[in-house]
Design a protein that fits this description.
It is built from 10 helices and 13 strands. The protein has helices at residues 29-41, 55-62, 85-93, 102-109, 111-120, 168-182, 230-234, 255-272, 307-314, 319-334; strands at residues 2-7, 45-50, 68-71, 128-131, 146-150, 164-165, 186-190, 196-202, 208-209, 213-216, 246-248, 277-284, 290-296. The strands form 3 sheets. Strands 8, 9, 10, 11, 12 and 13 form a 6-stranded antiparallel β-sheet that branches. It has a 4-stranded antiparallel β-sheet with strand order 4-7-5-6, covered by helices on one side. α1 (29-41) crosses α10 (319-334). The longest helix has 18 residues, at 255-272. It is globular and about 60 Å long.
């Protein structure tokens, strides 16, 4: 098949006018080339195209040459529409693609609406409040510590050491900083002080849940960041900065908790309308009750650093097979042939 790989390339920030984490969600040359090579190994002809302002013109010109798009593009303009931009263009041009569609991409990027939907489905999520101006009254039922984050970002953008706050003064300061820096509402959540668990889901119809991944931040106390901050993701493994989380896959939790998390993850996957693959993040409280943090239908696919390929590897799926399975799942979905498989 002729596969077009659409992406946004991660670049370094040299200007003080934009946040240091501006390009964090974009993909590295290593990720882009690894995906392309994995597809080529299976005999596909792969063309690379960045999701820039010339994308629409490129697609109009080359539409007849494209059999399928492998989409990992995060989008560039519009805080709430970014991830939906490429799917919307492809839908309009009737070009099939991997991954979730327009509505799912738009909803999942908006943490506030994702949490609202999950609550209606009976999926626990930390208590939260959205601040649009920063002047709103703080919900008196919120309990400290609280964490403040941009409402419509991923890859830990906007999450730093001072994002977890313990009093109203710090809360107000952090809310205003987020709104000003990222030009969008700030989401405030009760901070769950427990294990972080990541769930990978692969498939449609009856999707497969990959082995759960536990992220242990106990070795990161010296950094003051015991959660997935931007620095934690950007400088992961840096011993000088104490940014050395430990990963356990499968997670070190009891079977009944594993079953509960898998059930909730599948429920969220279907409620948000995900296709083909997705990563869903949870935190456990002191009683091991799971709380959903976010749904990510565009999880990282870096072969060396991303969580999703790591979980797939533990499930016995190597990187090349994972990339091609995502493509195969999308092709079957587009052709109306959903795979039926048992949930592990």
């Amino acid at each position: 098949m002729n596969i077009l790989l659409i992406y946004n390339l991660k670049r370094k920030v040299f200007s003080k006018k934009i946040p240091c984490d501006f390009y964090s969600e974009f993909d590295s040359h290593r990720t882009i080339n690894s995906i392309a090579n994995a597809l080529r190994v299976k005999g596909h002809r792969v063309t690379l195209k960045e999701a820039d302002e010339q994308l629409l013109y490129y697609l109009l010109k080359h539409k007849k040459e494209i059999d399928f798009v492998f989409n990992i593009a995060e989008g560039v303009n519009g805080s709430l529409s970014r991830e939906a931009q490429v799917p919307a263009i492809l839908d309009f041009l009737k070009i099939p693609y991997t991954g979730s569609g327009v509505i799912t991409m738009a909803i999942s990027l908006d943490k506030f609406y994702t949490k609202k939907i999950c609550l209606t489905e009976g999926i626990p999520t930390p208590k939260f409040q959205l601040f649009v101006t920063g002047e709103e009254e703080v919900d008196s039922s919120l309990r400290y510590p609280l964490i403040v984050k941009p409402n419509a970002e991923g890859s830990a953008k906007g999450i730093f050491k001072n994002s977890v706050v313990y009093n109203k003064k710090r809360l107000r300061k952090q809310i205003k900083k987020i709104i000003q820096r990222y030009k969008q509402p700030a989401l405030v959540e009760e901070f769950i002080e427990g294990k972080e668990i990541t769930v990978g889901i692969l498939g449609n119809g009856s999707p497969m849940v990959l082995p759960l991944l536990e992220i242990d931040f106990s070795s990161c106390r010296g950094s003051g960041e015991f959660f997935y901050s931007w620095r934690m993701k950007e400088f992961q493994g840096n011993e000088e900065k104490h940014l050395t989380p430990t990963f356990y896959c499968p997670a070190r939790i009891k079977d009944n908790v594993v079953r509960k998390i898998k059930q909730l993850a599948l429920k969220a996957y279907k409620a948000i309308g995900c296709f083909d693959f997705c990563r869903i993040d949870f935190r456990l409280d002191k009683e091991n009750n799971p709380y959903l943090l976010e749904v990510n239908p565009l999880p990282g696919l870096d072969p060396e650093e991303s969580n999703f390929p790591l979980m797939a590897k533990i499930a016995g799926i190597n990187y090349n097979d994972l990339i091609n399975r995502i493509l195969e799942l999308a092709i079957k979905r587009v052709n109306g042939k959903l795979e039926r498989r048992e949930v592990n």
